[in-house]
Design goal:
The protein has 1 helix and 7 strands; from the N terminus they run E-E-E-E-E-E-E-H. The protein is of the alpha+beta class.
Length: 122
């Protein structure tokens, strides 16, 4: 429905559920010759939010190396959304099967931990 008229939007806005990354999760990213290491805000099968005070413009193409406890995940992505002085939302555009498997394993673990933490609060 139309949000402008106060109607609720019942359509899902995300393809994949996201989860908050563990404190201290780092991602290395490269845009052209610029390289940086930043903290990850949240992560999903389709992308992640990178905390950085100087994000590149939307539509920029980046290379990524996500540090996980089960091995590095390498990917390519595109900047889909920028929060000035806060960070950027990246959509994964390319990832090999091994990296996708490691990302799936990481997300399964994080969602299970989130569920356990939520169950304890109830």
């Amino acid at each position: 429905m139309d949000r402008a008229w106060g109607m609720a939007n019942t359509e899902p806005t995300r393809r994949y559920p996201r989860v908050k990354a563990p404190k201290g999760t780092l991602v290395g990213w490269q845009l052209g010759s610029k390289r940086a290491v930043s903290r990850v805000g949240d992560i999903a099968l389709g992308g992640l939010f990178i905390r950085t005070p100087d994000p590149p413009p939307q539509q920029s193409l980046v290379k990524l190396v996500l540090s996980t406890g089960i091995g590095a995940v390498r990917a390519r992505g595109v900047v889909r959304w920028v929060a000035p002085a806060k960070g950027m939302a990246i959509e994964f555009t390319a990832m090999n099967a091994d990296d996708r498997g490691r990302l799936n394993g990481l997300l399964r673990l994080l969602f299970e931990r989130q569920k356990i933490a939520t169950d304890r609060r109830v």
